[in-house]
Write a structure and sequence with these properties.
mainly alpha; 103 residues; elongated; 4 helices
């Protein structure tokens, strides 16, 4: 009876393994794509725009969290009414996506 259950469960897990994507294979494929993309580009083009975008998003995040929510109300209390709406949702989506933590 245990052998029958073992065979049955082994068949089910094998079928599920074929249906669901293998994350290790996907990560390896993405790594190869990233290496080919960076390796084939000029040194100043592809590498610099990613780092520039990362720095800009990081600075915008710092502004939205530290500057807008903490520093501006403390130093300039009247300015918080005149600031445009916060863009923290959009900044977080882009920044977390660049870091591989996004959706």
């Amino acid at each position: 009876m245990w052998a029958l259950l073992g065979n049955l469960l082994g068949g089910i897990t094998g079928a599920v393994g074929k249906i669901l994507p293998d994350r290790n294979r996907q990560n390896d494929a993405q790594s190869r794509i990233n290496e080919a993309e960076v390796g084939g580009a000029p040194a100043s083009m592809l590498r610099l725009w990613r780092s520039f975008l990362g720095w800009m998003l990081s600075l915008l995040f710092c502004w939205e969290v530290a500057g807008r929510l903490i520093i501006i109300p403390l130093l300039f209390p009247g300015w918080s009414d005149h600031l445009p709406p916060s863009a923290l949702n959009q900044i977080m989506t882009l920044l977390l996506g660049m870091l591989g933590l996004g959706f």
